[in-house]
Amino acid sequence: MSLRTFSWLAVVIGVAVAAVGWFGIAGTLALLVVLACVAAHVAGNAIGTSIRDATDRDMPARSADNIVVPARRPLTLLERGESLGRLVPVSAGVGSLAGGLIGTSCLVVFVGSSVPGAMLGGVSSAVIGGIAGFLTASFIEVVCSAFREAQQAEPRPVSRHPLNG
Questions:
Q1: Percentage above 90 pLDDT, the chain
Q2: What is the spatial distance between Cα 82 and Cα 88, in angstroms, rounded to a whole number?
Q3: 165 or 6, which is more confident?
Q4: Are the CB atoms for 149 and 81 separated by under 8 Å?
Q5: At residue 1, does pLDDT exceed 80?
Q6: What pLDDT score does 136 carry?
Q7: Which of 74, 112, 119, 158 sits between 20 and 30 A of 65, alpha carbons compared?
């Protein structure tokens, strides 16, 4: 390594030590994350611009005769934007209730938390339980409706030999 590289290394280490002394370790890590995000954004823009500039702009124009339009199909449940059903809010409520009760009781029994601490922890646990219940019910409902729609869209095999009765 050259003297110039060692000099830059000393500057970087000095700035890092000064940043830790000035902002603390958490502030320095937060600053590094922000700087990494800005660097990734700039790099992504540069890469995207170079890819866009490198593409072939002299492609032959497509005529309307070559465009194939697929046949229309009925909209799916997710495309219609309909409600997922009554299972989702009920599951979110049950999850919220269970999360609040379990969180509060664990805080009181295992940690020996005070009443305000147990109440705050119970509310936090209820929010987490409600989110978990909502996500679980939504996932189950979407998977079930996807299977139902896939079965309805699947062509039924036609019997070639009717049963003689």
A1: 35
A2: 13
A3: 6
A4: no
A5: no
A6: 93
A7: 74
pLDDT digit string (tens) for 116-152? 888 999 999 999 999 999 999 989 988 888 888 888 7
Which residue intervals of the chain are DSSP H helices? 3-54, 77-80, 87-106, 115-153
d(CA 80, CA 78): 5
Tokens of 139: 């996932």
Q: Which residues contact 125 (CB under 8 A, 6 or more apart)?
A: 99, 100, 102, 103, 104
Which residues, in sequence order, are CB contacts of 118 under 8 Å at separation 6+? Answer: 104, 107, 108
Buried b (16+ CB within 10 A) or exposed e, 48-86: eeeeeeeeeeeeeeeeeeeeeeeeeeeeebeeeeeebee
> CB of 96 within 8 A of CB of 130?
yes
What predicted TM-score, i.e. pTM, was given to this entire model?
Answer: 0.49
Considering all CA atoms of the chain, what is the largest pairwise distance in Å, rounded to the nearest integer? 97
Structure tokens at 23: 């902002």
Crossing angle (nearest 10°) for helices 115-153 and 87-106:
150
Dist. CA 129–CA 93, nearest whole Å:
9
Domain segments of the chain: what residues?
1-51, 81-153
pLDDT over threshold 70, residue 66 = no
